[in-house]
Amino acid sequence: MSTPGSTPLSRLVQLLDVEEIEVDLYRGANTDAGWVRVYGGQVVAQALAAAQRTVAEDRPVHSLHSYFIRPGEPRIPILYKVDRERDGASFTTRRVTAIQHGRAIFSLAASFQLVEPGLTHQDSMPEVKGPEGLLNDAELHALAGDRIPEPFRTIWAERDRPFEFRAVQRHNPFKPKATEPVAHNWFRADGEVPEGQALRAAIFAYATDMTLLDTCTLPHGVAWTDPKLQAASLDHAIWFHQQPDPSAWHLFDQASPAASGGRGLNIGKIYRQDGLLVATVVQEGLIRYRR
Question: Which helix (H) or strand (E) holds 91?
């Protein structure tokens, strides 16, 4: 529940402070943010937070791979069981299973590495408008006003937004037109981010599930509110090329190279505003459309 003086970002920080209830077993709280099912980015971030509790601070996460097995219930806590698969000289591997009602709803494998120098190269950041002057999601929805159908108007107004997103290409999410499967979104945490690289990596991971699944629906002109569309994240992978700072503006460069069999693949490259490639994200999502 929200407390007086709290903010969406401070509530996210509380969610990521998973409670240790036994050795390698953690409990993650849930939100009252009006979700029908638990937001996937929350489960990714909490599972990463649990894994990080068992890893030395000098070994930041460099990659994670995860699968969404069952929808999570937002009104009950989630248990996170951590398996310590390997502690090597340079790399550490952890596997995390998220559990509700005695059943696995999510699994994650994460790898951590001692910081070391190495060969360096990266893709260049695409040339797009900067975040300055672009409207954020809250401002766009306020302008749309009564044109947003219920219950989505009320849900959006009441939902926590720990991140501010500003779309470079604006689309009408309720009456979309078919377009190429490419999107660019600027984002940053909406508030002051606490110190601590492990916490910042988990906060950053939370944001990587936002807007990405939408990319594979763009060529089909399908609204995510269309009752014939069943959409959900199936898996989620992140490669951290740099240690992230969620308080800085980042460009989420998104593309969908293919969709088939009721599934769509989405690839995101996340650049810091100065052009540094911070992370690469890949996600396959269910986009089952019943005509």
Answer: strand 91-100
CB-count burial class (<10 Å; 0-12, 13-18, 19+) for 57: exposed
> pLDDT digit string (tens) for 174-197?
788 999 999 999 999 999 999 999
Among the listed residues 137, 160, 209, 253, the single catalytic one is 209
Whether pLDDT at 94 is above 50 = yes
Question: pLDDT class for 157, splitting at 50, 70, 90?
Answer: low
Nearest to 252 by CA among 192, 179, 167, 134: 167
Scanning the structure block, which residue is given the tokens 């306020």?
142
State which amino acid sits at residue 4.
P
Please tell me the pTM assigned to this model: 0.93
Question: Rounded to an integer, what is the distance from CA 111 to the centroid of its chain?
Answer: 18
Question: Rounded to an integer, what distance in angstroms lies between the CA atom of residue 180 and that of residue 161?
Answer: 27
CB-based burial label for 114 (10 Å; 0-12, 13-18, 19+): middle
CA distance 269 to 253: 5
Separation of alpha carbons 230 and 133, rounded Å: 34
Pairs from 121-124 (Cβ < 8 Å, separation ≥ 24): 122/241, 122/276, 122/277, 123/269, 123/277, 124/275
Q: Which one of 42, 52, 100, 233 is the catalytic residue?
A: 233
**Residue 106 and residue 50 in contact, taking contact as beta carbons nearer than 8 Å:** no
pLDDT at 141: 73
Model pLDDT for residues 20-49, shown as the tens digit of each residue = 999 999 999 997 656 678 999 999 999 999
Q: Say if CB 46 and CB 81 are below 8 A apart.
A: no
Catalytic residue list contains 209: yes
